[in-house]
Amino acid sequence: MKASELFNVEGRVVAITGAAGGIGLAYAEVMAANGAKVNLIDIDPLALTVAVGRLRADGSEVHGEFADVTKPDTVRQAFANIVERHGRLDVVFANAGISGGPGFLNGAGERNPAGAIENLSLDVWERVIATNTTSVFLTLQTVVPYMKQQQGGGRIIVTSSISASKTETLVSSIYATSKAAVGYLVRQAAHELAKYDILVNAISPGPVITNIGGGRLKDADARKPFERAAPLGRIATTQDLQGAALYLASPASSLVTGAQILIDGGTALGPAD
Fold first, then answer.
1. Where are the domains of the chain?
2. Active-site positions?
3. If you classify domain 3-265 with CATH, what class do you get?
């Protein structure tokens, strides 16, 4: 089979949460560039308008929907609008997420009191769990009924993290816990929904250069400890995640469910030379 057929997403109705920037926007770019009908969902109306306009300028069919992924009513309304517009929902990227702050070590390998478990904020815990974990549960509850009733099932692709499967030192224990729960939820949902031809998978990056955490990884010095931990010697850009997104949304992954695709430069393997 030719690559153009294997990775064909032309005409598929795609929805992406947290899509006005960062990883979500990168997903939107690769989906739109390959002919999908793309719907961006975000909490930031201005950024959403800018992102939709930029993608439409390339001739793609792109729409925007406002939603706060921690507010059920707005999430349900956004997806209802998308289904009303297109008549179906083929691929959903549950992508929205936030940082939980620094870990219990700093970049020099020294203890960081602000990241000590006894000093972590309950408010931050609740906000991160709501945004990173509960929002995925809410997205699943919202989109699964649509996918069950349509021919062909659907694809649900969750942005998880290598933190779902390893402990962390430079990343907050709150963030790691939120993603560990997401990793399990992906596997559980994949098991339950296989009967309905709904495939549920995760893209699990290591550190990615985005605006998350105040955009700190845009600073070369801030990246160094993460780069030292990666055998390939660098951390991800959002473009590094686009290949996995296209794969999981396309016929190429038609027998893949419950999987976690690591995109981490080998970080999960441990440091090398």
1. 3-265
2. 175
3. alpha beta
